[in-house]
Amino acid sequence: MSWIKSIQPAQADAALGKTYQRVVGSRQQVDNVLAVHALRPQTLQAHMGLYQAVMHHADLQLPLWMREAIGVLVSRLNRCDYCVAHHRCGLSAAVADAQHFAALDQALATPRPGLPFSPPQQLALEYARKLTVTPSDVSAKDVQMLREAGFSDGEILEVNQVVAYFCYVNRVVLGLGVELEPPAAATSPAQA
User: Fold this and answer.
1) Peptide bond preceding 113: is omega within 30 degrees of 0, i.e. cis?
2) Cβ-Cβ contacts under 8 Å for 154 (sequence gap 6 or more)
3) Domain containing residue 103: CATH number
């Protein structure tokens, strides 16, 4: 599970059990990345609220597959295999075409993905890379380049928020030794 104590649903008190009921998906399982919050359930609630707002809110403009691609890239850059595994599944489900997924996945295996991402998408991924690896080097010029490539300020905010969320969750996973569930269980939380 992790390097710290986690509480499984069967051992949860009423309050934690209620929170777990909200995050259990179709697999009837609480993912390890969520169970690691059990000792401070308020952080589990905040984590899921942030995840839903950044990745699955109805008002988001970037396509889900692009948000998942950013998450995979950030997680690969941070060497967070747990999040890579989960969000590769999310990316696969979001594109629904095996060949397109394979091409995207291959491109995301490099620090600077190229085709099949369009030049504007590549620019957004470069912003994500820079914000992940050298955040203090990001400047107004980077944001202006995204604008010039056709991204609205709201979409730029979405890219920024996806990067920030994945840097957060990657550090939770890596800093607490969260282990990946069995292969059949690796999905993104929204798929659950």
Assistant:
1) no
2) 61
3) 1.20.1290.10
The reply to whether 69 falls in a domain is yes
End-to-end CA distance of the chain: 19
Q: What is the 3-state secondary structure (H, E, C) of 94-156?
A: HHCCHHHHHHHHHHHCCCCCCCCCCHHHHHHHHHHHHHHHCHHHCCHHHHHHHHHCCCCHHHH
CB 159 within 8 A of CB 146: yes
Q: Which domain holds residue 89?
A: 64-168
Measured in residues, the chain has a length of 192
Q: What is the largest CA-CA distance in the chain?
A: 53
Q: What is the pTM of this model?
A: 0.91
pLDDT by residue (tens digit) across 158-178? Answer: 999 999 999 999 999 999 999
Question: In terms of Cα–Cα distance, which of 21, 37, 19 is closest to 29?
Answer: 21
Number of structural domains, the chain? Answer: 1
Closest CA to 182 of 4, 22, 27: 27
* Residue with token string 């800093």: 175
pLDDT in tens, 126-149: 999 999 999 999 999 999 999 999
